[in-house]
Amino acid sequence: MRKSRFTENQIVGIIKEPEAGAVTKELCRRHGISTNTFYKWKAKFGGMEVSDVAKMRARRREPALEAYRCQLRARERRPQDHCRGKLLPPEQLVAAARALDSVSGVKSLGRH
């Protein structure tokens, strides 16, 4: 995936410029983007503040972190696998997460 020249925070700033009276065509020329790109960004980030972008970024990382936590919890239950350096296969990882959910009452994967 191609990395953007602009951070998400900069994109939010660019989108807010027309609200201050800037003309979209001139704005796009000044930043070196197409009007199509501007409207795609506006559809994705329109109405957001910089703090909202940070929250969105944190939510994107959440499933990976939760899967890692589940795997660590499963390793704590089965220390012999951890000592040998084995990783749980995905189906056992999901089963372990569901077992933890039933015991703790908290949904760790969020998909079931």
Specify the number of helices.
6
Radius of gyration: 22 Å
Mean pLDDT value: 77
- End-to-end span in angstroms? 30 Å
Fraction of residues in H or I helices: 55-70%
Low-confidence stretches: none
Total tally of structural domains: 2
Main beta-sheet annotation: none
Overview of the molecule:
By secondary structure, the chain is an all-alpha fold. It folds into two domains: 8-45; 61-104, no CATH class. Helix content is 68%, strand content 0%. The chain has six helices and no strands. α1 packs across α3 (35-45) and α4 (50-77) crosses α6 (90-104). The longest helix is centred in the middle third of the chain and has 28 residues, at 50-77. The chain is elongated, with a radius of gyration of 22 Å. The relative contact order is 0.09.
Short account of what is shown:
This protein is mostly helical and 112 residues long. The chain has 6 helices and no strands. It has helices at 8-16, 24-31, 35-45, 50-77, 79-83, 90-104.
Keywords:
single chain; 112 residues; mainly alpha; 2 domains; 0% strand
Ordered list of secondary-structure elements with their pairings:
Elements: H1 8-16, H2 24-31, H3 35-45, H4 50-77, H5 79-83, H6 90-104
Helix pairs in contact: 1-3, 4-6
